[in-house]
Amino acid sequence: PASEAADGISFSPFTQREQEGESIAKRMTSMIAPLLPTEVAKEPMLLKREVAPGMTLMIGATNRISKGTPGNGGFRIWKYDSVQQAAEEAVALAQGMEVKHMTYNTGCAGAKVVCDIGEDRDLSGLNKKQLLDALNEMLVELDGQMFTGCDMNSTLEDMEYLAEKSDYILAAIGNDSVNPNHATAHGVVGALLAALRPDLVDEAGKPLCHFNQAANDEVVAKRITNLLEGKKLLVHGCGAVGSVVARELTSMGATVYTIDVLRNRADIEGCINISERDEPWWKLEVDAIVPCSKSSLITVEMAREVRCSHIIGAANLPFANAEAQEIAQTTIPGGRPAVNFMPEGVTSAGAVIVDSVEQYDQDAFKGAKPDELYAFCRENVFSKSKQVAKLAQEAKDLEMKTPAAQMPDLLAETAANQSTPIGLRFAPWRQSVLDSPVTAMEASRSLSRRNIIGAALRPAARHEARAFSTATPQTADVVICGGGIMGLNIAYQLKGRDPSMRVVVLERGSALGVGSSGWSTGFMRAFYSFDETMKLALDGIRAFKNWSSYTGIKEPRAYFTETGALWMLGKTGEENEIMQQRLKAFGVDSTVLDASGVKEMFPSMNTDPYPEYDPETGEETGRVFPELSALYEHGCGHLDSSSCLEDMLDAVRREGVDYRFQAGVSKVLTGGGKATGVELEDGSVVMAGSVV
After folding, report:
1. Tens digit of pLDDT for each residue in 396-417?
2. Are residues 156 and 85 in the same domain?
3. How many domains does the chain have?
4. Which end of the chain is more exposed for a tag (fewer CB within 10 A), N or C?
């Protein structure tokens, strides 16, 4: 029987058709369903609707959804071979989401929105507005029983459009400084810490991976930057999630190898890019392989040859099939021991944890700093990873001694013991645990700002990275030499115009503001002699006055203090009126003042003219000066330059700019009459299409 969801719309039980061979969706279902309790996975549901000729919109669900336990999963748009194939994938993806939701008791059920655009369309010609309107209609009819967010070929802009029409969108809309991809990345980091540093607890047994006070306490910062010293990890896939994971791991002292199908993306400061090495990456001897790329990454052949202790990452279904996973988890006689594989339902749940906060405690979500939410994800994934590892270790049956085999028991135990959604636990956790959490990368930067970071911090990783980059020059679209306020803003503007652009900023100093930017008073005024300079100054003033909006940081460190500017240049009243007209032409208010006007505005100022003296005799000449005239320019002011630089560094790194300290440029390389790259003082080379 159909499951009534709302008036005029209903889900129906979904049965997978028998077919020759193994489809991707059937493989997914066969690998995910065993992780779920039997009663949860036995009756998948599907809602299907043709929203345009040949275009079908559907929602797959692991089980029945309701207002009490709404479905939650992203919106995927793809051209499938058939509607049936799309339906199978919707249900399989929903089951994958169910594992994450049950693992962390998010208060939601596993679901997924999938659109099959049909054989007569392609993605480039899709009428997105028509599709989004159809999805909104479906969500409104479900009346709070389904929430969605971004997935393949749906964007944050799409979610913002939908959020204006209904309340059923979870995509960090209420806090634009939070990045769900970063939340996922920090969850992966928590899982890796649980595997590599299970001792990371305090006297009461509580995890210490929230990195509290690391930006303020040098001792804490040093501890964090050495947490993974001596460990080697391989991050496969350096996109929105993998790049953050790699930076965090190298900031904790690990030797981090990176690889990506787009080689440039794996050029990450402090990491070793092996994208173009001939040796098979899976044969590299590392403590952990961290899959953050595609599904089906590890084949049966690779599983036999991997030389790692752990496989922990963000990628959904990193194994090509169940056989590959079983081989990896089995000891090979005369070869390597069994690999510890932690299912992605545990490790890759940062985004759904943040979704739960957004859904169940909107005030806490809106007021949260990103690092607080990321620390919450990191700590919860750390704890859950340790819990499932302990269950596997204590299992008596040999076949049950893997984290994957323990998932049904873990989910059942979570459902029985945790009735409060994890989203409602964030605010009290923050109040009781935190006052200033940061990321490992920020902890490392805090040491740089104290000028105590050096060669001893990560000797092995830095030495190898330097040797590797010298042998194989790194590449970028644009290299910017100098990481002060100008270099940071140029990088920020370039990424804003083209997010895919590979931008590298090279700063000689070991900390921000070692050059003129750090010494600047940060004062901004509009009046200049040239029109172009005035336009540039006004653009800067607008940015500083709207600093949060400009940087995309909800609570930036820097803020604009409006003071105005008093111009006393010895001009006559007529000359100052001409100056006033020039400012007015650019939309700037000003006031021409005589001596009494200046005295009224600045009572402590003595407006009497300073007497002129004869340089020969030292006597007053008795010269009578013209009447004082001044001009007061409204809207001027200043902000702290050091705080401004810190905000801009956060902003550019959030956008994916590769910013490097202690990277002085010794010369610009040329060829064919143009700049082709730079050589650094350590001998390494970065090739680039443009050099600034």
Report:
1. 676 678 888 888 888 878 877 8
2. yes
3. 4
4. N
